Amino acid sequence: MPASAPRRARPSFRDLSFAAKASVALLLVVVADLLFHGHPVGATLGAFALLLTLATAALRPDLRGDRKAGGALLAAAVLALVLVEAPSLLAWMLFWAALSLAALLPRAHRFDDAWRWSQRLLGQAVVGLVGPWVDLRRARRLGQATRRRRWGEVAALLALPAVGGAVFLGLFAMANPVIAQALGALRLPAFSPDLGGRMVLWLAVLTLAWGVLRPRRRRVLPVASPRSGVAWAGISVASVTLSLVVFNALFAVQNGLDAVILWGGAGPPAGLTLAQYAHRGAYPLIATALLAGLFVLVALDPRSPTAKVPLIRLLVVLWVGQNLFLVASSILRTVDYVQAYSLTRLRIAALVWMGLVGLGLVLTCWRMLRGKSGAWLINANAAAALLVLAASCVVDLGAVAAAWNVRHAREVGGRGPELDVCYLNALGPSALVSLVDLERRTPPPELVDRVAWVRQINLIALRERQSAWRAWTWRGARRLARVEALQRERPLANSAPAYQRECDGRPVAPPAPPEPPPPSVVYEPAAPPAAAPSPLTPGAEH
Fold it and tell me: For residue 537, what are the CA distances in angstroms to 327, 528, 530, 534?
């Protein structure tokens, strides 16, 4: 009986998974090239992020069985929808962090603290840069070891289809000029800066997709065990007690002055306006509160002897209370400065940052009083910061600043400063609704003309951007619909023609025409004087 031919081994599930992930990664590269190369970024970034999230959930079965990873995947999907609403660098970074966290969480026993996980995410980003090439080299070695085919077999396999296809293609090209022209137009792509940028985009998308589909960390991620309290040199019960007494006294002096000047209305010192006094101390006082929180965090660990002394605990609570009053004074300083000048996105961010500092002080004091761990404190502060960052991706801070400035503008009867139209112009489409609202408030005619010009140029820019489907955003569509609805309710006037305008819409006078050159004067040489008669000339008088 003849020996049966050896059976060909079926591909394993791991091989099929690798091939599926490679195919999906290449497909994502093609989709990214169609969406982003040479085009502005809009809601397409959110659509691509959502597609990447779905691909990760479909090709990583271990994520679906892990509750922590499932929560991170849900957060990534929500952030992808935020990118559809309004794409931004911050929203993309939060999305990438959530998706990478979902990719790594199944390999850890538990979530320890946000600080260590931020280090792991950074390591994943760095190591993931070489991930596709390491896996490609490994697959090539595996293919050489498991599938050895002779070149003759490959040539015999491809000879008939290659030769036959070439013959038929040549005959079709002779019979059909369309096919002949298409074949004649085939050229290898010439290297250019555009091709180089395209290849960079391909590599970036491939690395990003491969990093979440096949994370480089193969071993279970280590989880740190709780550390015992660390004794710091120079920190004792006596030194901490004396330091808290001194700190409380100094803070009482500063808070007393703020209570009289800011909260009591006594007025700033001579030579300073209230706005100058407020602006001078807002940020240094926040730095003071941060240093105070760092002192409590380092010197008063719940497991240290100093944290168990009743007097020290009382002094710490009193000092944290004074720090909270200091933060409140800093917020009031910033509010006074905004009322004297105007509201900007940076000042909104400063107010939010001050609120986070105050919350961090409360959490630090609560950790000492309740004996919480350092991981609890880090996770609580990280959760608050992430919530604020995610909210800032959804809320348009530029629109908030523009609405406040218009509502409190002096030109429309508000108590605020003179309206900075140049800043509204710099905000772009974020200020469009506020500009329309300002025109409906019947400001002075000169301001109406300037605001109308700023509104027109930003409205044209928004319509052009929304007309391109790749640059379309959900926020832009709602904003454009709102502006058009307001214009239908009450038509707005156009700005007067002008030669040129400044950023705040003020007309710039055209340059004076050049003066004509002076008429050219032709200088003719003067006639020589007549010669005097010679005394020897006949007939001359002597």
Answer: 118, 21, 15, 5
Beta strands 507-508; 500-501: pairing state: antiparallel
Dihedral in degrees, nearest 10, Cα atoms 446, 450, 451, 456: 140
Model confidence at 369, pLDDT cuts 50, 70, 90, reads confident
Pairwise CA distance, residues 210 & 129, whole Å: 9
User: Which positions ≥6 away from 336 have C-beta within 8 Å?
Assistant: 262, 274, 275, 278
**Residues 438, 491: contact at Cβ < 8 Å?**
no
**pLDDT by residue (tens digit) across 277-318?**
666 666 777 778 778 777 777 777 777 777 778 888 888 888
Judging by beta carbons within 10 Å of its beta carbon (0-12, 13-18, 19+), is residue 363 exposed, middle or buried?
Answer: middle
What pLDDT, on a 0 to 100 scale, did the predictor assign at position 444? 85
The reported pLDDT for the residue numbered 480 is 93
pLDDT of residue 80: 95
**DSSP helix/strand/coil, 174:** helix
Q: How far apart are CA 105 and CA 215, in angstroms?
A: 11
Q: Give the residue from 360, 330, 323, 362 showing the smallest Cα distance to 347.
A: 330
Question: What's the rounded Cα separation, in Å, for the pair 361 and 290?
Answer: 8
Mean pLDDT of 325-342: 86
Q: Residue 8 — very low, low, confident or very high, per pLDDT cuts 50/70/90?
A: very low
Three-class DSSP category at 532: coil
> How far apart (Å, rounded) are the C-alpha atoms in residues 26 and 489?
50
Judge whether 325 and 289 are in contact, CB under 8 Å.
no
